[in-house]
């Protein structure tokens, strides 16, 4: 199974991301989705299924509260001139990625222990050393035939030990076992390198922007 188009992949990502993060149910609109996240630095986010200049200008112009985020599937150089005053790009370029999900167990590297657990529709994988030191983690939310892999992280001291591959294989195995056939995720440039090595491919650029505080009120 694969996504028929980017819009279908975006919808799957939005649904799974909201479950993974414990956010509110995504509210659909003609241009995409709005999600109440409820964090002080990430109050809500607008995800544009398709982005164009008039839509971005209206959304960012209407949003005057700080820590509102916008996600668009266009390159940073395209999104930047469309943003209203008070908005700026957040972090670097990102990527929407996808892969078919298959059961493929990977051996835990020597010197590490893997623990998984599921709660509220989310399965987490945690890798630690025998003394309990954090080494790597990741989580997956399954929503029907699709799944979102999220928050994959390897501690710098434990990189290049096969832990990222272990976490991805573990999450794919869990998702496939729950009936998901295809996965989707949002990646940083560093994460993209790992995901491509384990069979994921880029569907579209993913650029983030955030509304900062009003300089007159800061």
Summary, kept brief:
This protein is α+β, with helices and mostly antiparallel strands. The chain is built from five helices and twelve strands. Strands 1, 2, 3, 4, 5, 6, 7, 8, 9, 10, 11 and 12 form a twelve-stranded mixed β-sheet that branches.
Outline the fold blueprint.
Layout lengths: L5 H16 L5 E3 L2 E8 L2 E7 L4 H10 L5 E5 L3 H4 L7 E3 L4 E7 L12 E7 L2 E7 L5 E10 L2 E9 L8 H15 L4 E6 L1 H9 L3 E11 L7
Parallel strand pairs: 3-4, 10-11
Antiparallel strand pairs: 1-2, 2-3, 4-12, 5-12, 6-11, 6-12, 7-8, 8-9, 9-10
Write up this protein:
The mean pLDDT is 95. Strands 1, 2, 3, 4, 5, 6, 7, 8, 9, 10, 11 and 12 form a twelve-stranded mixed beta sheet that branches. This protein is globular. It is an alpha+beta fold and 218 residues long. The relative contact order is 0.21. The N and C termini lie far apart (49 Å). The chain has five helices and twelve strands. The protein has helices at residues 6-21, 53-62, 76-79, 163-177, 189-197, and strands at 27-29, 32-39, 42-48, 68-72, 87-89, 94-100, 113-119, 122-128, 134-143, 146-154, 182-187, 201-211. Helices cover 25% and strands 38% of the residues. A hairpin with a 2-residue loop joins strand 1 and strand 2.
Helix content: 10-25%
Distance between the termini: 49 Å
Q: What spatial form do the alpha-carbon principal axes imply?
A: globular
Order of helices and strands: HEEEHEHEEEEEEHEHE
Main structural class: alpha+beta
Mean pLDDT comes to: 95
β content, as a range? 35-45%
Assembly annotation: single chain
Number of continuous helical runs: 5
Uncertain regions: pLDDT < 50 for 5+ in a row?
none
**Sheet of most strands:** 12 strands, mixed
CA radius of gyration is 18 Å
Quantity of strands, as a count: 12
């Amino acid at each position: 199974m694969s996504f028929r188009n980017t819009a279908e992949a975006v919808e799957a990502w939005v649904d799974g991301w909201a479950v993974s993060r414990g956010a509110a149910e995504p509210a659909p609109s003609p241009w995409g989705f709005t999600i109440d996240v409820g964090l002080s630095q990430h109050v809500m986010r607008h995800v544009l299924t398709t982005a164009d200049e008039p839509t971005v200008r209206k959304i960012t112009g209407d949003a005057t509260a700080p820590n509102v985020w916008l996600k668009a599937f266009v390159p940073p150089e395209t999104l930047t001139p469309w943003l209203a005053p008070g908005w700026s790009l957040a972090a670097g370029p990102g990527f929407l990625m996808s892969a078919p999900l298959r059961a493929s167990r990977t051996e835990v590297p020597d010197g590490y222990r893997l623990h998984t657990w599921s709660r509220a529709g989310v399965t987490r994988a945690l890798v630690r050393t025998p003394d309990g030191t954090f080494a790597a983690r990741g989580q997956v939310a399954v929503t029907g035939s699709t799944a979102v892999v999220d928050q994959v992280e390897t501690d710098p001291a434990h990189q290049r030990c096969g832990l990222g591959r272990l976490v991805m294989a573990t999450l794919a195995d869990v998702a496939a076992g729950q009936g998901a056939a295809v996965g989707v995720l949002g990646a940083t440039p560093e994460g993209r390198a790992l995901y491509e090595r384990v069979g994921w491919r880029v569907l579209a650029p993913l650029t983030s922007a955030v509304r900062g505080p009003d300089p007159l009120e800061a």
